[in-house]
Amino acid sequence: MKFLLFLALLHFVSSLPTVAPKDHFEPWNFFEKVPVEQVIDPDYNIPAVQDAPEIPMEERDSATHAYSVDIAFHTTVSDMDCLRDHGYKSVFVRALNPSGNTYFDREALNTINNAYDAGLGSEIYITPNINSTRSGGDQISLVYQNLHDNGINVRSIWIQVTSPSNWEAPMPVRIEFIHDMIQRAQVLGLAVGIYTSFYDWLEITGGFNNFSSQVFLWYWHVLGIGADGETIPTLEDFRPFGPWKQGTIKQFGQVEKLCGMIVNRNVYGILNQQKSKIIHIPSGNSHIEKEMIRVGGIGL
Ligand SMILES: *[C@@H]1O[C@H](CO)[C@@H](O)[C@H](O)[C@H]1NC(C)=O
Ligand SMILES: *[C@@H]1O[C@H](CO)[C@@H](O)[C@H](O)[C@H]1NC(C)=O
After folding, report:
1. Ligand 2, atom 1: nearest CA belongs to which residue?
2. Which one of 9, 14, 26, 95 has the fewest CB atoms closer than 10 angstroms to its CB?
C-alpha cells in the first residue's frame, strides 16, 4: 500500500510539465529532497507540498468562469465530493498513460464516473509518447475507442505538449506527430486542444502556427510549483504564440495539496459545459433513452 502511494506520487510528478527554462525550479530536484518516509504518509501530509488556497466564496458560482484540477491517479467519489464542496466544477482526467508503448488508463473511467456522481464535469487529456510504436493518430484512437466502448460520450480531447526532454525527435517529426493526432481527433468528430505553454511550444515545435483548422489552447503559466508559485487565476496574462490568439483554459497552479490529492489548478470561461446528454438508441421499433456521461466541451 505504501509502495503504491509512493509510485502514484512518482507517477504524478513524471507527468508534470516542466517549468519554463528561465526559472530555476526543477520538479524532479524538488521531489528528490522529500524523504521517502514523508512521501508515504497515508494522508499525503507532505510538508513540502503546499495546500491549495481556497476558492473565494463569491467565485464559486461565478457566471463567467470555473475552476478545475487535473487528475492522473485513482480517485474515489468522496474525493470528487470534496472538490465540489471546495468550489471546483470539473476535473481534467488523463486517459492515456505514456509509459512503455502507451496505454489507455482505465482509472480515467472510474474518475469520470465519480466526477459525474459528484456533479462535476470532466474533460479528457492525454500524455502522448512520441517514442511509441503507435502513431500519434493511433494514440488518439486508442483513447477514443476505449471511452466509446465504455459508454462515454466524448466530445473533445486535450493533447499534452510539455516537457521538451520527452520529445526526442527531429522537429519536423514532432510537428507531424502532433498534426497526426489532431487530424485523427477531427476525423473522429472531436474538438481538439493542446495543453502547452509559450516555452514548451517554442522548444518542441519551433512555434509552429500552421494548423489547417481550429485547435484550442490550454496553457500553463506558473512561477514555480506550489501555492507560492501561482499566477493570477484568470487568462489576462495570455500573450499570443504559435497559432493562438486566445487561450481557453489556463493552468495557474501546480503541485498543490487539495482534498488529500496532489493536483494542478486550472481556470476557464464557462459557456455551455454540459455533464450529460440524453441519446436515443434504436431498439426494435422503439427507442431506449439512455443517459450518457458527456465528457469535454469547454470552449465549444
Ligand atoms: C523518448 O525517448 C527519449 C530517449 O530515450 C527520452 O529522453 C524521452 O524521455 C522519451 N519520451 C517519452 C515520452 O517517454
Ligand atoms: C500551411 O499549411 C498548408 C496546408 O495545410 C500548406 O499548403 C502551406 O504550404 C503551409 N504553409 C507554410 C508556411 O508552411
Report:
1. 210
2. 26
**Ligand 1, residues 16, 126, 131: which to mutate, most atoms within 8 A of Cβ?**
131
- Ligand closest to CA 212: 2
CA of 22 to the centre of ligand 1 (A): 22
Beta carbon of 212 within 6 Å of any ligand 2 atom: yes
* Helix (H), strand (E) at residue 193: strand 191-196
d(CA 214, CA 211): 7
Name the stretches of the chain with pLDDT < 50.
1-14, 18-44, 276-282
pLDDT digits over 109-155, tens only? 999 999 999 999 999 999 999 999 999 999 999 999 999 999 999 99
Across the chain, what does the average pLDDT equal? Answer: 83
Contact 94, 123 (CB under 8 A): no
pLDDT attached to residue 297: 77
Cα separations in angstroms, 13 against 18, 157, 208, 220, 258 = 10, 22, 27, 16, 16
Task: Report the CATH fold assignment for 65-295.
Answer: TIM Barrel (3.20.20)
- Is any ligand 2 atom within 6 A of the Cβ of residue 29? no
The amino acid present at 128, given as its one-letter code, is P
Mutation test of ligand 2: which of 178, 205, 210, 215 has the most ligand atoms closer than 8 Å to its C-beta?
210
Q: 0.90 cut: is pTM over it?
A: no
The rounded distance, in Å, linking the Cα atoms of 183 and 67 is 29
